[in-house]
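Q: What structure does this chain adopt?
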Amino acid sequence: MSAPATSVAAVILAAGESRRFGGAKLLALLDGRPLVQHVIDAANASSCDPVVLVVGAGADQLLASVRLGRSLVVRNAAYATGQASSLQAGLIAAASADAAVVLLADMPGVRPALIEALVARQRGSAAAAVTALWHGRRTPPTLLHRDLWPALHDLRGDVGAREVLAGRADVVSLDVDPTQGSLDDIDTPDDHARVSAPPAG
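A:
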């Protein structure tokens, strides 16, 4: 097991090329704000420090379209190699922290309460990682203790932490309560339309 994390960073991965969406996905509007802005705002409203925003494809357009607040920007020049390079760039920027909550910029339903719940679960369990459990499946956001970071820095290609976490006994899950947000990710225009649709009834 790992030690309880005293300091926890937030790392937002926003460097992807959004090929399936066919355009600047992270700037698509939801409730009047770009998708990525929802995630930035949730991280900024949490206790995590620092908050690191990793950008790559379309970085200039993205940065011109969002309010960063207290978020720090890291440009990943190797974004085309896949998600692993962005994760590594974010962890390097968060090097002073004991752990990092890794958030995906295309999950606009995440709320500060979920980030805080992941932190509290790690502190209570001393787990090496805490994954969110949404509709019965493990999904980001994920808290990663710095004990795991050397293995994460060895990853290559379009992979995240899942490969490192597989089979480990010191990984725990957190059942996401609806009050903590929604973890639907937006990959296609149809996904965006579904999430943007007003509630039935």
